[in-house]
Amino acid sequence: IVDRLDLLEQAKNEFSKRGLCVHEAENKEDLSQKLKNSRVFEGPQGNDEIIVVNIQKFKAPNEDPSSAPKEIVSKTELQEAAKDSHDLQRVFIIDEAHRSYDPKGCFYANLIECDKTAVKIALTGTPLLEDNAQDKATKKTFGTYLHTYSYAEPIKDRPTLKRQLAI
């Protein structure tokens, strides 16, 4: 689950490079149909499949493009779509989890609630550390961190250089 078109393309390319057969959910109906399929997917070459979703495609037509997505896929619709998948283990990977996430009633919340047994992995480079008025603290929403990588570590690992001021 991504929230920008460039991240959608990046995710599709990276998953393809790793041998997955990548599908893109084009709209809420397409995602619902894909969730209703309760068998494990395999591509034509026997590769496991993954569905990549751009959250922006789920905005209502009259919604401001820069606003957070409103609930246009209901929790009930998604639970109904996922209910007959008893032998299927879903994994939701939510990129940029700190952005546009509202735990009360939006698409993300409904998607992650539709399958209570799904593994949910949230990725973010800039987690919201403090509870705020909208109750969006990343750790509160998604749970404890599996791994952290501080700002100092890439400098030590050398993919990032220290900033030096020239006078």
TrEMBL record:
All copies of the SWI2/SNF2 ATPase domain together span 1-162
| Record Gene3D superfamilies | P-loop containing nucleotide triphosphate hydrolases
GO annotation (BP), single: DNA restriction-modification system
Keywords for this entry? Endonuclease, Hydrolase, Nuclease, Restriction system
What Pfam families does its record include? Answer: SWI2_SNF2
One Gene Ontology term of the molecular function aspect: endonuclease activity
Indicate whether Membrane appears among the record's keywords.
no
Protein name from the UniProt record: Restriction endonuclease subunit R
